[in-house]
## 1
Amino acid sequence: MNFHLSNFTDVSSVVDAVRNISHLGGATNTTGGLRRMRLEIFNRANGDRPDVPNVAVLITDGVPTREVDGLDDEVMRIKNDSIRIVVVGITSAVSQRWICKCGALFDTNAILISHSLFSDSLL
Protein backbone atom coordinates (compact mmCIF):
# COMPACT_ATOMS: atom_id res chain seq x y z
CA MET A 1 0.00 0.00 0.00
CA ASN A 2 1.31 3.41 -0.92
CA PHE A 3 -1.09 5.77 0.83
CA HIS A 4 0.89 8.78 1.92
CA LEU A 5 -0.88 11.96 2.93
CA SER A 6 1.66 13.97 0.93
CA ASN A 7 0.23 12.42 -2.27
CA PHE A 8 -3.10 14.22 -1.86
CA THR A 9 -4.08 17.87 -2.00
CA ASP A 10 -7.87 17.66 -1.70
CA VAL A 11 -10.66 15.51 -0.30
CA SER A 12 -11.67 14.21 -3.72
CA SER A 13 -8.25 12.70 -4.39
CA VAL A 14 -8.25 11.00 -0.97
CA VAL A 15 -11.70 9.53 -1.60
CA ASP A 16 -10.60 8.25 -5.01
CA ALA A 17 -7.50 6.66 -3.49
CA VAL A 18 -9.55 4.93 -0.78
CA ARG A 19 -11.99 3.62 -3.39
CA ASN A 20 -9.09 2.14 -5.33
CA ILE A 21 -7.61 0.18 -2.41
CA SER A 22 -8.05 -3.44 -3.37
CA HIS A 23 -9.44 -6.02 -0.99
CA LEU A 24 -6.82 -8.75 -0.66
CA GLY A 25 -9.05 -11.30 1.04
CA GLY A 26 -7.78 -13.87 3.50
CA ALA A 27 -7.07 -13.30 7.17
CA THR A 28 -7.94 -10.13 9.08
CA ASN A 29 -4.79 -8.52 10.49
CA THR A 30 -6.21 -5.54 12.36
CA THR A 31 -3.05 -5.18 14.45
CA GLY A 32 -0.79 -5.10 11.40
CA GLY A 33 -3.04 -2.64 9.59
CA LEU A 34 -3.17 -0.29 12.56
CA ARG A 35 0.60 -0.48 13.02
CA ARG A 36 1.14 0.33 9.35
CA MET A 37 -1.27 3.26 9.63
CA ARG A 38 0.53 4.62 12.70
CA LEU A 39 4.04 4.24 11.27
CA GLU A 40 3.58 4.89 7.54
CA ILE A 41 0.55 7.11 7.10
CA PHE A 42 0.58 9.30 10.19
CA ASN A 43 4.20 10.46 10.07
CA ARG A 44 5.69 13.74 8.91
CA ALA A 45 7.88 12.18 6.23
CA ASN A 46 4.73 11.01 4.44
CA GLY A 47 2.74 14.23 4.82
CA ASP A 48 1.28 14.17 8.33
CA ARG A 49 0.78 17.69 9.67
CA PRO A 50 1.42 18.10 13.41
CA ASP A 51 -1.15 20.92 13.70
CA VAL A 52 -4.02 18.78 12.30
CA PRO A 53 -5.73 16.05 14.35
CA ASN A 54 -5.15 12.52 13.07
CA VAL A 55 -8.40 10.63 12.46
CA ALA A 56 -8.60 7.21 10.84
CA VAL A 57 -11.57 5.12 9.76
CA LEU A 58 -11.09 1.41 10.37
CA ILE A 59 -13.43 -0.51 8.07
CA THR A 60 -13.61 -4.16 9.01
CA ASP A 61 -15.34 -7.15 7.49
CA GLY A 62 -14.60 -9.54 10.35
CA VAL A 63 -12.79 -10.06 13.61
CA PRO A 64 -8.98 -10.09 13.87
CA THR A 65 -7.43 -13.45 13.03
CA ARG A 66 -3.71 -12.55 12.87
CA GLU A 67 -1.49 -10.89 15.49
CA VAL A 68 -4.50 -10.86 17.83
CA ASP A 69 -2.36 -10.86 20.99
CA GLY A 70 -0.68 -7.60 19.95
CA LEU A 71 -3.87 -5.62 19.32
CA ASP A 72 -4.17 -4.06 22.79
CA ASP A 73 -0.53 -2.88 22.74
CA GLU A 74 -0.93 -1.37 19.26
CA VAL A 75 -4.09 0.43 20.34
CA MET A 76 -2.20 1.91 23.31
CA ARG A 77 0.53 3.18 20.96
CA ILE A 78 -2.13 4.76 18.75
CA LYS A 79 -3.79 6.41 21.74
CA ASN A 80 -0.40 7.68 22.93
CA ASP A 81 0.08 9.24 19.47
CA SER A 82 -3.36 10.94 19.81
CA ILE A 83 -4.76 9.22 16.72
CA ARG A 84 -8.56 8.94 16.82
CA ILE A 85 -10.18 5.93 15.18
CA VAL A 86 -13.75 5.46 14.02
CA VAL A 87 -14.59 1.77 13.55
CA VAL A 88 -17.09 0.64 10.91
CA GLY A 89 -18.16 -3.01 10.57
CA ILE A 90 -19.62 -3.87 7.17
CA THR A 91 -20.44 -7.58 6.88
CA SER A 92 -22.40 -10.23 8.69
CA ALA A 93 -19.06 -11.57 9.98
CA VAL A 94 -18.83 -8.51 12.22
CA SER A 95 -20.88 -8.94 15.37
CA GLN A 96 -22.44 -6.21 17.46
CA ARG A 97 -20.31 -7.53 20.33
CA TRP A 98 -17.07 -7.01 18.35
CA ILE A 99 -18.11 -3.50 17.34
CA CYS A 100 -18.91 -2.63 20.97
CA LYS A 101 -15.52 -4.02 22.02
CA CYS A 102 -13.83 -1.87 19.37
CA GLY A 103 -15.63 1.21 20.66
CA ALA A 104 -14.43 0.51 24.18
CA LEU A 105 -10.93 -0.51 23.09
CA PHE A 106 -10.40 2.58 20.96
CA ASP A 107 -12.43 4.95 23.20
CA THR A 108 -14.18 6.02 20.04
CA ASN A 109 -17.21 5.66 17.84
CA ALA A 110 -18.06 2.23 16.50
CA ILE A 111 -20.73 1.60 13.88
CA LEU A 112 -22.17 -1.66 12.55
CA ILE A 113 -23.71 -1.24 9.10
CA SER A 114 -26.17 -3.86 7.94
CA HIS A 115 -24.39 -6.28 5.65
CA SER A 116 -27.38 -6.16 3.32
CA LEU A 117 -26.19 -2.72 2.20
CA PHE A 118 -23.03 -4.25 0.76
CA SER A 119 -22.57 -6.89 -1.87
CA ASP A 120 -19.59 -9.20 -1.98
CA SER A 121 -18.47 -7.40 -5.12
CA LEU A 122 -17.81 -4.27 -3.07
CA LEU A 123 -15.46 -6.05 -0.71
## 2
Amino acid sequence: MTELDAEDAKLVVLARGAMGRAEAASGAAVRDLDGRTYAGAPVKLDALQLTALQAAVAAAVSSGATGLEAAVIVVGPADDAGVAAVHELSADAVAAQLKRLAAMPLEQRRQVRGLMPERASTIVAGTAILAELMGHLGAERLTVSERDILHGAALEAADQPA
Protein backbone atom coordinates (compact mmCIF):
# COMPACT_ATOMS: atom_id res chain seq x y z
CA MET A 1 0.00 0.00 0.00
CA THR A 2 1.28 3.49 -0.87
CA GLU A 3 2.02 5.76 2.09
CA LEU A 4 -0.03 8.97 1.99
CA ASP A 5 1.42 12.31 3.00
CA ALA A 6 -0.29 14.13 5.87
CA GLU A 7 -2.48 16.32 3.65
CA ASP A 8 -3.78 13.37 1.63
CA ALA A 9 -4.32 11.30 4.78
CA LYS A 10 -6.42 14.21 6.11
CA LEU A 11 -8.69 13.87 3.06
CA VAL A 12 -9.27 10.20 3.87
CA VAL A 13 -10.17 11.09 7.48
CA LEU A 14 -12.57 13.80 6.29
CA ALA A 15 -14.23 11.46 3.79
CA ARG A 16 -14.66 8.77 6.44
CA GLY A 17 -16.07 11.39 8.82
CA ALA A 18 -18.66 12.53 6.26
CA MET A 19 -19.57 8.91 5.59
CA GLY A 20 -20.02 8.24 9.32
CA ARG A 21 -22.01 11.41 10.07
CA ALA A 22 -24.42 10.68 7.23
CA GLU A 23 -24.47 6.95 7.99
CA ALA A 24 -23.78 6.54 4.28
CA ALA A 25 -22.18 3.76 2.26
CA SER A 26 -19.47 6.08 0.91
CA GLY A 27 -17.76 9.40 1.52
CA ALA A 28 -15.49 11.77 -0.37
CA ALA A 29 -13.28 14.78 0.25
CA VAL A 30 -11.48 17.31 -1.96
CA ARG A 31 -8.75 19.90 -1.47
CA ASP A 32 -8.84 23.14 -3.44
CA LEU A 33 -5.91 25.08 -4.88
CA ASP A 34 -5.65 27.13 -1.67
CA GLY A 35 -5.42 24.00 0.50
CA ARG A 36 -8.97 24.25 1.88
CA THR A 37 -10.78 20.93 2.29
CA TYR A 38 -14.39 19.91 1.79
CA ALA A 39 -16.14 16.60 2.46
CA GLY A 40 -19.40 15.07 1.35
CA ALA A 41 -21.60 12.00 1.51
CA PRO A 42 -24.18 10.86 -1.04
CA VAL A 43 -27.37 12.91 -1.26
CA LYS A 44 -30.48 10.90 -2.04
CA LEU A 45 -33.52 13.15 -2.12
CA ASP A 46 -36.49 12.99 -4.46
CA ALA A 47 -35.44 16.33 -5.94
CA LEU A 48 -31.65 15.86 -5.84
CA GLN A 49 -29.25 12.94 -6.27
CA LEU A 50 -25.50 13.44 -5.74
CA THR A 51 -22.65 11.02 -5.24
CA ALA A 52 -20.31 11.66 -2.31
CA LEU A 53 -17.71 13.18 -4.63
CA GLN A 54 -20.27 15.39 -6.35
CA ALA A 55 -21.38 16.65 -2.92
CA ALA A 56 -17.78 17.43 -1.91
CA VAL A 57 -17.12 19.22 -5.21
CA ALA A 58 -20.36 21.18 -4.86
CA ALA A 59 -19.34 22.28 -1.36
CA ALA A 60 -15.95 23.44 -2.68
CA VAL A 61 -17.33 25.30 -5.69
CA SER A 62 -20.11 26.94 -3.68
CA SER A 63 -17.44 28.15 -1.24
CA GLY A 64 -15.47 29.86 -4.00
CA ALA A 65 -12.92 27.21 -5.00
CA THR A 66 -11.62 27.86 -8.51
CA GLY A 67 -9.91 24.51 -8.92
CA LEU A 68 -9.16 21.28 -7.11
CA GLU A 69 -5.79 19.84 -6.20
CA ALA A 70 -6.82 16.43 -4.86
CA ALA A 71 -9.84 14.21 -4.30
CA VAL A 72 -10.49 10.97 -2.46
CA ILE A 73 -13.45 8.58 -2.48
CA VAL A 74 -13.86 6.12 0.39
CA VAL A 75 -15.85 2.97 -0.40
CA GLY A 76 -17.16 4.41 -3.64
CA PRO A 77 -16.76 3.51 -7.29
CA ALA A 78 -13.70 4.71 -9.21
CA ASP A 79 -16.03 5.74 -12.04
CA ASP A 80 -18.01 8.06 -9.73
CA ALA A 81 -19.90 10.69 -11.72
CA GLY A 82 -18.13 13.38 -9.68
CA VAL A 83 -14.75 12.56 -11.25
CA ALA A 84 -15.69 14.62 -14.31
CA ALA A 85 -16.19 17.68 -12.09
CA VAL A 86 -12.76 17.18 -10.51
CA HIS A 87 -11.20 17.33 -13.99
CA GLU A 88 -13.11 20.44 -15.09
CA LEU A 89 -11.50 23.89 -15.00
CA SER A 90 -13.16 27.21 -15.68
CA ALA A 91 -11.39 30.03 -17.52
CA ASP A 92 -11.23 31.82 -14.14
CA ALA A 93 -9.51 28.79 -12.60
CA VAL A 94 -6.94 28.76 -15.41
CA ALA A 95 -6.30 32.49 -14.83
CA ALA A 96 -5.96 31.89 -11.07
CA GLN A 97 -3.52 29.04 -11.67
CA LEU A 98 -1.49 31.21 -14.05
CA LYS A 99 -1.27 33.99 -11.47
CA ARG A 100 -0.34 31.51 -8.71
CA LEU A 101 2.32 29.70 -10.74
CA ALA A 102 3.82 32.87 -12.20
CA ALA A 103 4.32 34.28 -8.70
CA MET A 104 6.39 31.25 -7.64
CA PRO A 105 10.14 30.97 -8.11
CA LEU A 106 11.22 28.00 -10.25
CA GLU A 107 12.37 25.94 -7.27
CA GLN A 108 9.00 26.37 -5.57
CA ARG A 109 7.18 25.32 -8.78
CA ARG A 110 9.29 22.15 -8.80
CA GLN A 111 7.70 21.27 -5.43
CA VAL A 112 4.07 21.75 -6.54
CA ARG A 113 2.15 18.53 -5.96
CA GLY A 114 0.93 17.05 -9.23
CA LEU A 115 3.36 19.04 -11.39
CA MET A 116 6.25 17.08 -12.85
CA PRO A 117 9.42 18.86 -11.66
CA GLU A 118 10.90 18.83 -15.17
CA ARG A 119 7.90 20.85 -16.39
CA ALA A 120 8.29 23.58 -13.78
CA SER A 121 10.29 25.77 -16.16
CA THR A 122 7.63 25.70 -18.90
CA ILE A 123 4.35 25.50 -16.97
CA VAL A 124 3.85 29.28 -16.73
CA ALA A 125 4.25 29.74 -20.50
CA GLY A 126 2.02 26.75 -21.20
CA THR A 127 -0.67 28.00 -18.84
CA ALA A 128 -0.48 31.49 -20.38
CA ILE A 129 -0.95 29.98 -23.85
CA LEU A 130 -3.90 27.94 -22.58
CA ALA A 131 -5.51 31.03 -20.99
CA GLU A 132 -5.07 33.03 -24.22
CA LEU A 133 -6.42 30.20 -26.34
CA MET A 134 -9.48 29.82 -24.12
CA GLY A 135 -10.10 33.57 -24.38
CA HIS A 136 -9.65 33.57 -28.15
CA LEU A 137 -12.06 30.66 -28.57
CA GLY A 138 -14.53 31.99 -26.01
CA ALA A 139 -14.20 28.72 -24.06
CA GLU A 140 -15.60 29.01 -20.54
CA ARG A 141 -14.44 25.55 -19.36
CA LEU A 142 -12.03 22.78 -20.21
CA THR A 143 -11.64 19.21 -19.12
CA VAL A 144 -8.24 18.14 -17.87
CA SER A 145 -7.27 14.66 -18.98
CA GLU A 146 -4.61 12.39 -17.57
CA ARG A 147 -4.25 10.92 -21.04
CA ASP A 148 -2.45 12.62 -23.87
CA ILE A 149 -3.13 13.00 -27.57
CA LEU A 150 -1.26 9.76 -28.32
CA HIS A 151 -3.80 7.81 -26.23
CA GLY A 152 -6.62 9.25 -28.35
CA ALA A 153 -4.72 8.57 -31.58
CA ALA A 154 -4.16 4.95 -30.53
CA LEU A 155 -7.85 4.47 -29.71
CA GLU A 156 -8.86 6.06 -33.01
CA ALA A 157 -6.44 3.83 -34.92
CA ALA A 158 -7.89 0.79 -33.14
CA ASP A 159 -11.43 2.13 -33.76
CA GLN A 160 -12.21 1.97 -30.03
CA PRO A 161 -14.34 4.36 -27.91
CA ALA A 162 -12.43 6.70 -25.54
## 3
Amino acid sequence: MVLDPLTIGMLVILAVLIFFMFRNSRKRRAQMEELQTKMVPGARVMTNFGLFGTLQSVDEVSNEAQLEIAPGTVITVHRQTLAKVVDEIAEGEPRSVEEAMAIAEREQAEREAAAAAQVDSTLAEPEFGERADEEPTKPARRTTRKPAGEQPTAE
Protein backbone atom coordinates (compact mmCIF):
# COMPACT_ATOMS: atom_id res chain seq x y z
CA MET A 1 0.00 0.00 0.00
CA VAL A 2 1.53 3.26 -1.18
CA LEU A 3 0.57 6.47 0.58
CA ASP A 4 1.01 9.45 -1.67
CA PRO A 5 0.97 13.04 -0.27
CA LEU A 6 -2.66 13.62 -1.34
CA THR A 7 -3.90 10.61 0.63
CA ILE A 8 -1.90 11.63 3.68
CA GLY A 9 -3.31 15.18 3.48
CA MET A 10 -6.88 13.90 3.23
CA LEU A 11 -6.35 11.61 6.24
CA VAL A 12 -4.94 14.51 8.27
CA ILE A 13 -7.93 16.69 7.38
CA LEU A 14 -10.30 13.87 8.32
CA ALA A 15 -8.54 13.43 11.68
CA VAL A 16 -8.78 17.19 12.39
CA LEU A 17 -12.50 17.21 11.56
CA ILE A 18 -13.16 14.25 13.86
CA PHE A 19 -11.16 15.95 16.64
CA PHE A 20 -13.23 19.13 16.39
CA MET A 21 -16.50 17.16 16.30
CA PHE A 22 -15.68 15.43 19.60
CA ARG A 23 -14.41 18.67 21.13
CA ASN A 24 -17.58 20.57 20.23
CA SER A 25 -19.83 17.80 21.52
CA ARG A 26 -17.96 17.82 24.85
CA LYS A 27 -18.33 21.60 25.09
CA ARG A 28 -22.04 21.41 24.32
CA ARG A 29 -22.53 18.64 26.86
CA ALA A 30 -20.67 20.66 29.52
CA GLN A 31 -22.82 23.71 28.79
CA MET A 32 -26.00 21.65 29.07
CA GLU A 33 -24.85 20.18 32.40
CA GLU A 34 -24.06 23.66 33.69
CA LEU A 35 -27.51 24.86 32.58
CA GLN A 36 -29.18 21.90 34.30
CA THR A 37 -27.40 22.68 37.58
CA LYS A 38 -28.69 26.27 37.41
CA MET A 39 -32.28 25.16 36.62
CA VAL A 40 -33.60 25.01 40.15
CA PRO A 41 -37.04 26.12 41.33
CA GLY A 42 -37.02 29.84 42.01
CA ALA A 43 -34.52 30.68 39.25
CA ARG A 44 -35.45 33.34 36.71
CA VAL A 45 -35.31 31.76 33.23
CA MET A 46 -35.88 32.67 29.59
CA THR A 47 -37.42 30.31 27.04
CA ASN A 48 -36.35 29.86 23.42
CA PHE A 49 -39.26 32.04 22.31
CA GLY A 50 -38.34 34.93 24.62
CA LEU A 51 -40.76 34.38 27.50
CA PHE A 52 -39.34 35.25 30.92
CA GLY A 53 -40.55 33.68 34.12
CA THR A 54 -39.67 32.16 37.45
CA LEU A 55 -39.16 28.40 37.42
CA GLN A 56 -41.66 26.70 39.75
CA SER A 57 -40.92 23.03 39.11
CA VAL A 58 -39.21 20.71 36.62
CA ASP A 59 -40.59 17.23 35.87
CA GLU A 60 -37.76 15.06 34.53
CA VAL A 61 -40.06 12.17 33.57
CA SER A 62 -42.53 14.10 31.40
CA ASN A 63 -39.98 16.76 30.33
CA GLU A 64 -42.19 19.60 31.52
CA ALA A 65 -41.38 22.75 33.43
CA GLN A 66 -43.79 25.12 35.13
CA LEU A 67 -43.06 28.83 34.89
CA GLU A 68 -44.70 31.68 36.72
CA ILE A 69 -44.76 34.51 34.20
CA ALA A 70 -46.87 36.88 36.33
CA PRO A 71 -48.04 36.69 39.92
CA GLY A 72 -50.58 33.87 39.95
CA THR A 73 -50.07 32.93 36.26
CA VAL A 74 -48.32 29.57 35.87
CA ILE A 75 -47.71 28.01 32.44
CA THR A 76 -46.35 24.60 31.49
CA VAL A 77 -43.66 24.37 28.81
CA HIS A 78 -41.41 21.64 27.47
CA ARG A 79 -38.19 21.45 29.45
CA GLN A 80 -36.02 21.83 26.34
CA THR A 81 -37.52 25.26 25.61
CA LEU A 82 -35.76 26.67 28.67
CA ALA A 83 -32.89 28.50 26.98
CA LYS A 84 -30.98 30.11 29.83
CA VAL A 85 -31.01 31.22 33.41
CA VAL A 86 -31.24 34.99 33.57
CA ASP A 87 -28.72 36.44 35.98
CA GLU A 88 -29.65 39.55 37.87
CA ILE A 89 -28.24 42.72 36.32
CA ALA A 90 -25.47 44.26 38.36
CA GLU A 91 -25.90 47.77 39.73
CA GLY A 92 -25.02 50.44 37.15
CA GLU A 93 -25.51 48.24 34.08
CA PRO A 94 -28.09 49.43 31.54
CA ARG A 95 -31.41 47.57 31.49
CA SER A 96 -32.48 48.79 28.04
CA VAL A 97 -31.10 50.13 24.79
CA GLU A 98 -32.36 53.62 25.62
CA GLU A 99 -30.54 53.55 28.95
CA ALA A 100 -27.34 52.36 27.25
CA MET A 101 -27.62 55.16 24.65
CA ALA A 102 -28.11 57.76 27.39
CA ILE A 103 -24.97 56.50 29.16
CA ALA A 104 -23.00 56.55 25.90
CA GLU A 105 -24.15 60.12 25.09
CA ARG A 106 -23.23 61.30 28.59
CA GLU A 107 -19.75 59.76 28.27
CA GLN A 108 -19.31 61.35 24.82
CA ALA A 109 -20.27 64.78 26.23
CA GLU A 110 -17.73 64.32 29.04
CA ARG A 111 -15.01 63.40 26.52
CA GLU A 112 -15.84 66.45 24.37
CA ALA A 113 -15.77 68.74 27.42
CA ALA A 114 -12.37 67.35 28.43
CA ALA A 115 -11.07 67.80 24.87
CA ALA A 116 -12.38 71.39 24.76
CA ALA A 117 -10.67 72.17 28.07
CA GLN A 118 -7.44 70.75 26.72
CA VAL A 119 -7.73 72.80 23.50
CA ASP A 120 -8.28 76.00 25.49
CA SER A 121 -5.11 75.37 27.46
CA THR A 122 -3.01 74.74 24.34
CA LEU A 123 -3.69 77.78 22.12
CA ALA A 124 0.02 78.19 21.42
CA GLU A 125 1.92 77.10 18.34
CA PRO A 126 0.57 74.00 16.56
CA GLU A 127 2.42 70.75 17.14
CA PHE A 128 4.27 69.02 14.33
CA GLY A 129 1.70 67.53 11.98
CA GLU A 130 -1.22 69.64 13.23
CA ARG A 131 -2.96 72.11 11.00
CA ALA A 132 -2.84 75.75 11.90
CA ASP A 133 -6.10 77.68 12.02
CA GLU A 134 -4.84 80.40 9.68
CA GLU A 135 -4.00 79.58 6.09
CA PRO A 136 -0.59 80.91 5.07
CA THR A 137 -0.70 83.39 2.22
CA LYS A 138 0.38 81.87 -1.03
CA PRO A 139 2.88 83.72 -3.20
CA ALA A 140 1.42 85.15 -6.37
CA ARG A 141 1.87 82.96 -9.42
CA ARG A 142 3.81 84.26 -12.35
CA THR A 143 1.91 84.14 -15.57
CA THR A 144 3.03 84.80 -19.09
CA ARG A 145 -0.33 86.17 -20.08
CA LYS A 146 -0.85 89.83 -20.35
CA PRO A 147 -3.43 91.50 -18.17
CA ALA A 148 -6.93 91.57 -19.61
CA GLY A 149 -6.99 95.38 -20.04
CA GLU A 150 -4.04 95.49 -22.46
CA GLN A 151 -4.53 95.02 -26.18
CA PRO A 152 -2.08 92.99 -28.19
CA THR A 153 0.04 95.18 -30.41
CA ALA A 154 0.14 94.51 -34.14
CA GLU A 155 3.61 94.81 -35.45
